[in-house]
Amino acid sequence: MTTGLMLFALFFGAGNLIFPPVLGASAGQHLGLVMTGFFLTGVLLPLVSLIAVSTSGEGVLGLANRVGKGFGMVMPAAVYLAIGPFYAVPRVATVSYELATKPVLELLGVSGGHLTLAVHALAFFSLTVYLAFTPSKLADRVGHYLTPALLVLITVLCAAVLLRGHTVSRDPVEPFATSPLTTGLTRGYFTMDVLGAIVFGLVVIAAVREQGFVGTRQTTRATSGAAAISAVLLSLVYGGLALVGARVQGEPSDGTALLRAASAMSLGSTGTLVFAAIVLLACLTTAVGLMAAWAGYGVSKVPALSFERHVVLGTVVAFALANLGLDLILRIVSPVTLLLYPITIALVAVTILDTLAPGHLRLTYKGATATAAVLGAVSSLADIGVSAPSELLARTGLWNDATGWILPTLLVTAACLAVDVCAGRWSTPASDDSGVTEQVEQAISGQD
Fold this sequence. Notes:
- The chain is globular.
- The chain is built from 19 helices and no strands.
- It has helices at 2-11, 14-26, 31-55, 59-65, 69-83, 88-107, 114-132, 138-164, 180-189, 193-210, 215-246, 255-267, 269-301, 307-322, 326-354, 362-383, 388-394, 406-422, 434-445.
């Protein structure tokens, strides 16, 4: 239970707070279909990815090595950097300033600026470092205290709005009107929680072992149970926040404005403080989990530095980037995430297929990830203004920069799987890539 509560908090960052109200305000009468799609890719896919990684016995480092040694070095490094000090951690710090600290300062009559952002970032990261220094205790600290506080605040906000407000009559906006299910699917995909899932796996393993679960079978059952608890909580919170969005006047595409309006409408000036507390807790718990995962990876690659020093160094980098501002961070890293996300989903999908077999699907791993990488690169190039490859693919009528990679990757995966089965690779013994993963586990759990 405590690990499941911790896992919910690790996943539930500021972006997860903002997306559901937008869906509620934009979907109109199609809200049920939209939320079904969102649950599939925003809740089920990340948690299936977490279980696949944490129960594989290898973690993301070992899974990447199944594709090849070069891929096994580059892909995990890129994921850990993007999900850690180079993007996700400075992003949540900056988002928490924009959505929590800055509105409270305005309520007090204080104007925000670069100095207040720096002070906020310093306090935010100081607390992050303190909590991340002992990741084996994350389940106790986050699961026992921070997550219940976060859930209580969200419940207060949702209950206040649902009891006082009525559904606002809106027609669904595009693309929710014409393709509600697929739009919900893509909005869940945009949460980027699959990237978080593949790095949280070893943090969860360390947490359940600290709770007394030992052995592969017990660890697998505990991890799956924690994932199920997290999935239920995420679904309930997402559903409640979507209903909030449907009951508040405002621009449907602006989730922040919708939540601020909901807080003010239902709780008055106190609502600003409640909303600020929700954002701060959501961002802090996510930052702590990401920094602990990053430091565990750092120890496996540079063991001369202790876990604590990797936490501090990563935090210093994140602090510097956070002070650049949210807009610049998003512009720099957006193309990187468009490249990494398809590759990660493809790798996890083949890993799930591989659990049905006693060995690795060598060609399937290579074909799926290579196709996802090429098509992800097309989306990434389009994001920085190099649109010629994207425009060429768009002539087929089947391509878009968000989800166009999915169908070709599925077809290549199916073809490679057939070749692997026919060639007898289905029963090829797996190589032992667990050494580096054990180093990461030991670093996270505080073992020597």
